[in-house]
Amino acid sequence: MSSVTVLCPNARRCPVKVTPGMLMRQVLEEACLRHGFEADEYQLQNQKRHVDLALPFRLSGLPNNATLEMVQAAKVALDSKVTIALQLPSGSRLEEEFPVSSTLFEVLQRFSQSGGEDLTVCGDSLAPSCSYMNRQYTGPLELQRTTLASIGILSGKCLIRYQRIALSKEQLDEIAARIASESAHKEAMLAAYAEKKAENEAREKLEAARLARFEEELRLEKERKSAEAATEEPMETDNQPAQSTAPVFSRDLLGSPPRNNSGWSFDAPVFSTAPVSQHAREDRLSTLNRLLHQENEAAATVAAVAAGPVAPCERRAVIFQRQSDGQAENELSDEFFEVRVDDLKVRQKELREEVKLTTQRALVPSKYIKQKNRERKLAAYPHTVIRLPLGNEKVVQLQFLSAEPVSRLFEWIRNTTSRNAQFTLSLVNLKIKESDTENFVDADLAPKSTVLDEANRMSSEWLSHNTVFKPYTAVVEEDERTTKRPASTMPGASSDIAPPPQKATAAPRWLKKK
What we know:
Blueprint: E1 2-7, E2 13-18, H1 24-35, E3 42-46, E4 49-50, E5 67-72, E6 81-87, E7 93-99, H2 104-115, E8 126-132, E9 135-138, H3 140-144, E10 157-166, H4 169-237, H5 278-307, E11 318-321, H6 341-359, H7 366-380, E12 383-390, E13 394-401, H8 407-416, E14 425-427, E15 430-432, H9 453-463
Parallel strand pairs: 1-5, 6-10
Antiparallel strand pairs: 1-2, 3-4, 3-5, 6-7, 8-9, 8-10, 11-13, 12-13, 14-15
Helix pairs in contact: 1-4
């Protein structure tokens, strides 16, 4: 069964089970009865769009599990009238005005008087029936308990079709049982309706009292400020300066910690209306100037280091021949792709590191982390090897310092080629730009690119000066645990048991190359 959720004015969610033929008016009434509200004072709204209460759920355009909101509706007087056109089986129509509180049975009685035919009589197993919005209301019992307002007819003109339907005794009993079940369900909700309504009224009174008290406080505050302004005006016009004896009010909303007259604290308010000695004010300004000077010196030092020229190294250009992929790789067995316990442990360790990076990250800006990682890369990768493929057969290998600008790579290519041809360099899908300010670390070209095993062996001496790069993650490390694991007290336990063998590498078996 489908259901919708109704947001009530008391911030409660009311789930209501609906059927395709259930009217949206019934959904509103059930939500109001559960939480003590008047159904005539509210209207349903979905995504700022009013829902027609006369439509069934099937034709309302609402999806399953939709969220509806109860909003204030324009009050409709119970004595307001609507125009009803009754279409008879012969095709003729009768039209009259009725109040919205009238039942369908009363409507048929009125039309019986004007039409000269009793439309409410039941005979020969025929029962009167009225159809509105693809829904039938059959039998005297259902017609007597259904009002125009309950089926969504509140204003304007509406057409109701009248006909007589042959019903057996079992069908009449089924209709009576359904009406009794709906009445029992409504009475069960009415039992708690009075209590919920009293709670809503008490809450509204409390909110009104709080609002009145708040408005009264605002009024008193305005009167106090106006009185203070009126008393300060004659003092300003006085020629002789006089010290005010009124208490000095500080603009700090929270209580500040105790401060030293000659000290400085970033937690203390800088601009305050409280009296401060001249000596303390001078100390604060001097301390602030000293901090700003240190910050400027640090920024200038970093800029000088970054902009400092780096002497070029010997390129040691070497040309290699590409190896043909003539050897076919052996097919891997299914055991190679099996996930073992060691692989799961490695993955668990990686997940723990990811959680640690997420939950224990320090409150530092990303720009600071990026700068720290750049400094660590420059310290870990002082040397860089660049390999340039020439066609499909040859590769040129060059050596650079990681701190050198990328423009020197372009200069070497221009000096080597015999003609001034236009060219571009790219690493995978990343286009390398010629820049005098970015080095090989900034361009993500350090420390090397693997092309041939022979080239790796010849460049190993140049790259041996590099170390392992550990990125700066800004993770707050926990204090080391001082407690050790207690020794085993089980009989027969021996301390000579060898520890489990250590794994040579952390990579899983299916990732290793054969």
